[in-house]
Design goal:
Blueprint: H1 10-19, E1 46-50, E2 53-56, E3 61-64, H2 67-70, H3 79-91, H4 100-112, E4 118-122, H5 125-140, E5 144-148, H6 155-158, H7 169-172, E6 175-177, H8 183-192, E7 197-202, H9 214-224, E8 228-232, H10 244-249, E9 255-258, E10 269-273, H11 275-278, H12 294-309, H13 312-333, E11 340-345, E12 348-353, H14 361-374, E13 377-378, E14 382-384, H15 391-413, H16 417-420
Parallel strand pairs: 3-13, 5-6, 5-7, 7-8, 8-9
Antiparallel strand pairs: 1-2, 2-3, 4-10, 9-10, 11-12, 12-14
Helix pairs in contact: 3-12, 4-12, 13-15, 14-15
Length: 433
């Protein structure tokens, strides 16, 4: 029987009970909610972050591999970003006219990102993707959109997923999904809806690497059919390379959207791309009271400047490779390759759990989370690496994986998983990718 002290999460449980009275799911973000974290063995609320570490409401310390869903690239409370925000705070947060920071940050994005000729800001990645689709529709005079990956909560995209409750059928009918690394699935859409597509939007990479020539073929096919190519770089931007996945893979889209690491956790997103398309933003309504909020812009300028001056990308890539190499060695050591594997880019990689004859991946993942949390590792099965992660952090993470993969192997091989769990298993969830 497992001897985890579940009282270590007592305050989290109390705060969740309190929050649920006024907040649906108890969280503003689906991926941070109780749907993702097994009850009784998980922290639910964090109160502080510094570098690579966070502390929950019970005072438990964790090495954070989630990093606010990959929004934190430099580390929590990065001194350069914090200094920039503190300095701007003294002058003001929002004004009655634009602040020069808007132009400075836009110029920095144009300097760094291959496709960027003009830029507009939002607050969330969903703002940016919705803006990109709206301006693509305005540019082409067409309505249909082909999607591949996760592109936010707005009607135009989420209507194509299982979470489409509340989205009109007429909106859902204009969004079509194609399969990553399968160019024929995109060709099929263009054939079926000839001359109707305004845009093709995809994450240039998430779990799997693009097969040779795939992104190039997507671009060629999109342009051949008169549509706009949009790369959703909400996560890959300023993480895979300074210029994002488009620079990393050498394929330049017409438009790209950014968020997450753009400002090291401050709320800022951007649509960037060809000037002839972006100038339509003068007519297309894409307007936010807080689009020019200065603290996030100051944080963004400091973040991107640091990316240019220091080996951030090189460091997080090297750190991520060490995690993947160590994890793959452990999967082999414990002979767990039948149900465990890894995927993704080193800076944003995945610990992949598969169903076994006796257990679903959700049941196995519940044991994984229970045990990793108990060992002070905050994870959802991804490794969202930050510049603040140290060699010592990596060693601690790998040591925890060694113990936990051994437990997972025993649970599966001896059919002891139910006895090892101190909670109800997670239920199958909406998968964003």
């Amino acid at each position: 029987m497992n001897t985890i002290d579940v009282s270590r999460y007592a305050n989290s449980e109390k705060w969740l009970e309190r929050a649920l009275k006024t907040i649906p799911l108890g969280s503003q973000t689906f991926s941070k909610s109780k749907t993702q974290y097994p009850a009784g063995v998980s922290p639910y609320f964090l109160v502080r972050g510094k570098g690579s570490r966070v502390w929950d409401v019970d005072g438990n310390e964790y090495i954070d591999l989630v990093n606010s869903l990959a929004a934190v690239t430099l580390g929590y409370n990065d001194p350069d970003v914090t200094r920039a925000v503190e300095a701007q705070l003294k002058d003001g947060v929002i004004f009655s006219l634009p602040h020069p920071l808007e132009a400075q940050v836009a110029e920095k994005i144009v300097e760094m990102v291959p496709c960027a000729e003009m830029v507009r800001f939002g607050k969330n990645g969903s703002d940016a993707t919705a803006g990109a689709i709206r301006v693509a529709r305005a540019h082409t005079g067409r309505d249909h959109v082909a999607v591949c990956g996760y592109h936010g909560w707005q009607d135009w995209y989420i209507g194509s997923t299982a979470r489409n409750l509340g989205v009109p059928k007429s909106t859902r009918a204009m969004t079509h999904t194609f399969t990553y690394n399968n160019i024929d699935s995109l060709q099929k859409l263009f054939t079926e809806y000839k001359d109707q597509f305004a845009a093709v939007i995809l994450e240039p990479m998430n779990v799997a690497y693009p097969e040779k020539g795939f992104l190039e073929a997507v671009k060629e096919l999109t342009h051949k059919n008169g549509a706009v190519l949009v790369f959703d770089e909400t996560i890959t931007g300023f993480r895979y390379s300074k210029g994002g996945a488009q620079e990393y893979f050498g394929v330049t889209p017409d438009l790209a959207t950014f968020g997450k690491g753009l400002a090291n956790g401050y709320p800022l997103s951007a649509v960037a791309g060809r000037a002839d398309i972006m100038r339509l933003m003068e007519e297309v309504f894409f307007s936010f009271t807080f689009g020019g909020e200065t603290l996030s812009l100051a944080a963004s300028l400091a973040t991107m400047t640091k990316l240019q001056k220091e080996p951030v990308i090189e460091t997080i890539t090297a750190t991520g490779k060490k995690i993947l190499e160590g994890l793959n060695a452990l999967i082999e050591k414990h002979d767990a390759g039948s149900f465990l594997s890894t995927a993704g880019h080193p800076t944003w990689s995945f610990f992949v759990i598969k169903d076994t004859p006796s257990y679903s991946m959700w049941e196995i993942k519940t044991l994984f989370l229970q045990e990793m949390f108990a060992r002070g590792i905050l994870t959802i099965g991804t490794h969202n690496v930050s510049f603040a992660h140290t060699a010592k952090d990596v060693a601690t993470v790998i040591a925890a994986y060694d113990e936990v993969i051994g437990m997972m192997k025993t649970a599966v091989e001896n059919e002891q998983l139910k006895q090892m769990l101190r909670c109800e298993p997670l239920k199958p969830l909406f998968k964003v990718r």
